[in-house]
Design brief:
This protein has helices at 27-31, 40-87, 131-187; strands spanning 95-102, 105-111, 116-122, 125-130. It has 188 residues and is an alpha+beta fold.
């Protein structure tokens, strides 16, 4: 059963447990339910609240996707550098490179062959690793970031579908209410 919690049950489900929007096939039966009590305004308000929650979740996921999309190239670059350092570890040739000193400021450097590398972990933390450990950590981080990006994109698609379903349901209930009011006006 390992790994099953990483995958939704099917494509119509969400990784994050986002509630699924209810599509209303029969508006009359839906509005006659006890909790709706033929009150279109309260049902539309409830659906609008749900739609706003979907939009909030979508904004959160878009920010997360943007962060992951910027992290993946950085991880790939770091992984490539570690692999290059591993390949040149037993030679006498220094690696000539340019590194980012600050925004838009680069510095030339010669890196002598070494079996150690410092990795920036974030939150003002940098640790020294052996090249094997660094490669392993960066590979794991790249796989996790790629998997998370895939899950976030899946959830964004799922959220868009739920938002559309909610909007269609709101329109159908509104039209049902307009039709009901016209019929009541015509009858009186």
């Amino acid at each position: 059963m390992a790994g099953e919690e990483d995958k939704p049950l099917d494509d119509s489900k969400s990784y994050m447990g986002i509630p699924e929007a209810q599509f209303v096939e029969d508006v009359d039966a839906f509005m006659n339910k006890e909790d709706n009590a033929n009150d279109a305004q309260s049902v539309i308000m409830r659906l609008d609240e749900q739609l706003n929650k979907y939009k909030f979740m979508e904004a959160h996921l878009q920010a997360r996707r943007k962060k992951l999309k910027s992290q993946i190239p950085d991880i790939k670059s770091s992984l490539q550098i570690v692999k290059e350092m591993k390949a040149r570890k037993d030679t006498a040739d220094a690696i000539e490179t340019k590194f980012l000193l600050s925004d838009q400021v680069y510095m030339k450097a010669k890196i002598p062959p070494t079996d150690r590398v410092c990795l920036w972990l974030g939150a003002n933390v940098m640790l020294e690793y052996g090249l094997e450990d660094a490669e392993s950590l960066l590979s794991k981080n790249l796989n996790n970031a790629t998997k998370n990006l895939s899950q976030v994109e899946h959830d964004l698609d799922f959220l868009r579908n739920q938002g559309t379903t909610t909007e269609v349901t709101m329109a159908r209930i509104y039209n049902w209410d307009v039709k009901r009011r016209r019929a009541a006006k015509a009858a009186s």
